[in-house]
Structure formats: C-alpha cells, structure tokens
Amino acid sequence: MAVGLPPKTIAVIGLGSMGFGIAASLARAGHAVTGCDIDPALVARFAAEHGSGAATPLEAAKGADIVVAVVVNAAQTRAVLLGNGGALAAAKPGALAIACATMSPDDARTIAAEVARTGHLYLDAPISGGAQRAAEGALTVLASGSDAAFAAGESALAAMAATLHRLGSEPGVGAAFKMVNQLLAGVHIAAACEALTFAQRLGLDLAKVYEVITGSAGNSWMFENRGRHVVEGDYAPRSAVDIFVKDLGIVADMSRATKFPTPMAGAGLQLFLMTAAAGMGRDDDASVARLFARIAGLELPNAPD
Question: Which end of the chain is more exposed for a tag (fewer CB within 10 A), N or C?
Fold first, then answer.
C-alpha cells in the first residue's frame, strides 16, 4: 500500500495471465479485491488464494471504488464496464474505471466519453511487462486521464506498477503510446523467431545461440523472453499469436488513417496471420518460429506438431 493511502475496494475483471497477477498484487497491497473471469476455475483459484471471486462483472463490482478491466480489446472493455450486467452499474458513484486493454486511441476516447456520461472516472491505462511482472506488481503502465482519475487510482497503480508514465490528461494518449510499443514488440518477436529458425537451418545449437545473442548487440527484450520459449519448446500461451494479429491490425488501421507507412509492422502482421491460419492462433506468440520451421522443413526442440 502506498504510504498514507487508504485501502480500496477493487474489482478486477479478467483473470488471464496479466489480470490474475494484477489482482494478486492489489490484494497483497492490502486492497479488498474481487476477481472475475468467464473461466470459473480462475475465479475459484483467485478466491482460494486471495479471498473473493465473482461470476459476473456486476457482482464483482458491487460497492467498488475501482474497477480494473484486464480484457482483450475495446469491445470487451466496453461490455464489462458498460454493457448489460456491466461493472459500473454496481460500482460506487464516481468510481474509477482503469482500462488496461490494448486498443486504438479512438476507441479509448469513445469509451472514456461513455464512462463519463455515467458519472464515473476513466483512466486509459494500457500495460506492458508480461505475466511475471504483473504477478510481481512491477508492470509499466502507460496512462492518460484527468487529475481526478489519477488521484482516485493512485494506490491501485502503486500496487500494479513499478513504472507509471503519466502521459497527459486526455484518454487515448496512453493507447497511442501502447500502439508504438506494440509495433516494436510484434516486429521484435517476429524477428527473434526468424533468427532462431535461421540458426536452426545453419545447424547451430539453439541454446548456445540464445546465450550468445542475449549478451550481444542483436539482443532485445522480446528475443530474451520469447527466445527462451523456442529453445525450451514451450508454447503454452503467455501472450497468444492472436493478440498480435489484433494489435498489429490496429497499427495497420492507424497507418492507413494517418497515411503513414509501416512496412515492418505490416510484414509482422502477415507472419502472425499466417501462424494463426496454420492453427496456432491460441498458442504462444513465439509460435511464429514454428511457422518458419514448417515452411523450411525443420524441427525445433520439443515443438508440438
């Protein structure tokens, strides 16, 4: 708990790889947290470990000071906050909605306006850092919103994030920053997968390649993180291929709208689309390496068929 700030009643909607860690971090910080997800097993696990679970957003947010939406996209964010049975109908008057999904700036602005019309506050607060950092309360949050929204969310954000970037008073700015990040992240994942599969074609020891590159100028955070998945043959989804189909698709839409070319992101999008079309959309996004391997007739370590 941030020094001098009282605990809050918080509903976390979405207990996936990021949401569960966020909810757990909030609970450890002393907040009264209720977790909600469409998967009853995740709700039961959170309730067993941290105290309270709910089957619906409306139930989870009863009397909540803050609702944290950690879902996939703008449509899901709108549904869990404002739809039939949405959380804000049960939250306290003037409660804060923290929207963590990656979405276009236009969608963030639209949802913020809809939330404002209900009398609630809104933070456009996409997140970065992965499941492990979420579990450690060490995410990077790229947030924009009013001073009142930041003040209402201060203690929750302190529990969620190691780094909070306050990016302005207007919703949509945080979303725009996140799309720049996602452009780079998607391209870096695709490049890492291409490089490792190329190394396999050259007959190199992939574990040694990983060791050498992570200590060399060609390294990136994504190579270091996703490269380990390829070396270990571990494609359990921390972040699925379909996520980058969505995110780089948003980049492509923004590219057309602004008449700004994004050829590297476009190539990355096609690789993620091909990987999804090959039946790996719900697998870890390092599965782009499996696509390269199939094209080249290679076998990666412990990779599933």
Answer: C
